[in-house]
Amino acid sequence: MMELVLTITAVALALAAAGAIIRIARGPSLLDRVLAADVLLAILGAALCIDMAVNRHLNNLMLVVAVSVIGFIGSVTVARFVADRREQPSES
Amino acid sequence: MSPEPNAVDTVVDAVSAVFMVVGALMSLAAAIGLLRFPDLMSRMHAATKPQVLGLFLLLAAVGLQLRTWWVWPVLLVAWIFQLLTVPVSAHMVGRAGYRTKHLHKELLSTDELEAVVVKAAKAARKSEEGDGNRSD
Fold it and tell me: Chain A partners of B20 at a C-beta cutoff of 8 Å?
């Protein structure tokens, strides 16, 4: 049963990662790209969790915790700076 | 420890398998939402909500598969941090998207921020005019 689950989840996560990468590549704005990169990080965490659950080890546990703690800093920083940079041309 | 799997083990394995499949499908749903939705606001909703529920399901699957009690607090910490940080990043992205006009106004049912923005702009204009009169 675990092999079937692993196949299904691997296909689903690969399709999800492909979709997020497509959105990163052709996102119309910088914020879309940041959002898609955030989703890609979440997909990475999901893959680490599935690896731990199927193979029954805990090697990735600290990495999952660290990703869930600091993963939001990048998108918050970019959102902050994009707000400052794009406001000036729209006002002038 | 019996060599043949007993009934409880089979049930727990099945539950964790269902959790893993649904959690992976949550990530797939987020990616489909990223590709299909028209503007930044709806993409933000599609991206953030499956992150929280999908990660919860996958962490529960890890805990069910390992069957040791000390794993659960660590998994809970990971999920609570995700629950705290995902709204922060979604709020910041939505705020920047509203300010840089990355939204389709015709798709909104109500724009609750518009009245506040108009009022603030009016107040800023009035204070500017007051300053101008005073300097004259």
Answer: 5, 9, 50, 53-54
Q: What is the pLDDT of residue A92?
A: 37
The tens digit of pLDDT for each residue in B62-117 reads 999 888 888 899 999 999 988 888 888 888 888 888 877 777 777 777 777 788 88
Q: What is the ipTM of this complex?
A: 0.82
CA torsion sign, A32 to A35 to A37 to A39? negative
B55 in Cβ contact with A43 (< 8 Å): no
Distances (CA, A) of B46 to A78, B41, B87: 19, 9, 13
CA B18 to chain centre: 22
Instruction: Choose between B30 and B99: higher pLDDT.
Output: B30
- Residue type at A36? A
Chain A contact probe: residue of B55, B85, B89, B95 with most A CBs at under 10 A: B89
B94 CA to chain A: closest CA distance, Å? 9
A81 → chain B, closest CA residue: B96
CA nearest to A45, candidates B44, B33, B23 = B23
Cα separations in angstroms, A72 against A22, B68, B80, B89, B134: 21, 30, 13, 6, 47
